[in-house]
Amino acid sequence: MTDPALTELLDLALEAARRAGALLRDGRPADLGVAATKSSPIDVVTEMDIAAEKLITGYLSDFRPDDGFLGEEGASSPGSTGIRWVIDPLDGTVNYLYGLPTWAVSIAAERDGERVVGVVEAPMRRETYQAVLGGGAYANGNALRCRPAPPLDQALVSTGFNYVSHVRGHQADVAQQLIPRLRDIRRSGSAAVDLCDVAAGRLDGFYERGLHPWDLAAGDLIAREAGALTGGRPGLPADGDLAVAATPGVFEPLQAALEELGAWHD
Prior knowledge:
Elements (H helix, E strand, L loop, with lengths): L3 H23 L7 E4 L6 E3 H17 L4 E4 L4 E2 L5 E9 L1 H6 L5 E8 L2 E9 L4 E6 L4 E3 L2 E2 L12 E4 L5 H14 L5 E3 L4 H9 L5 E4 L4 H13 L3 E3 L11 E4 L4 H11 L5
Parallel strand pairs: 3-5, 11-12, 11-13
Antiparallel strand pairs: 1-2, 3-4, 5-6, 6-7, 7-8, 8-9, 9-10, 13-15, 14-15
């Protein structure tokens, strides 16, 4: 990577994610509880989500006070530099609440609307994933590459479920019909981690409906820089209707199956 502007953004994202990950790992209260709910009573926010986002935005603002922000827990400002930080301070909040290890800090930087830097910090795995547009993807300094493409019926695919009951019910129907066409399905509880697992060759594919920009901004770039294909419905980018990431050869048949099964609507 030779662009000094992107080097600066990557270094800042890495340090902000490291600090937030350490706060979440080491500062988790024994009596951690729910601070608020979002789309439903089981879609929760903890005090640690809020504290981690404040840490990240505060750190980045110290160095780049005029940049914009979009954060899951409310950080929102347009900025004036053309750079916007897209932040999920704790992806996998329910896992974190229950003491499960699959959660991560996700930070992406956009330049003039294009994602150029992505960092996912997974403290309980002791793994830091990073990517710069055109510069490849890495975990703990090691280059990442997605798996060679198997036939769809030998693909291991991960997904996630919405916290709104009627949406989740349809997602379960889609998964039930999809399972016989695959090797198997996994559900980790963190879209950011799933996307990095596609990049690292631990999964052949991932799909989910209902994701927000902060859920997938960093992980999508990391997966693509590792050689995976990403998108939404056929011909469209990943969005709230559908996000798909998979190794080449799995992507198109998986995307077609999801379109056929109506994975993009409730």
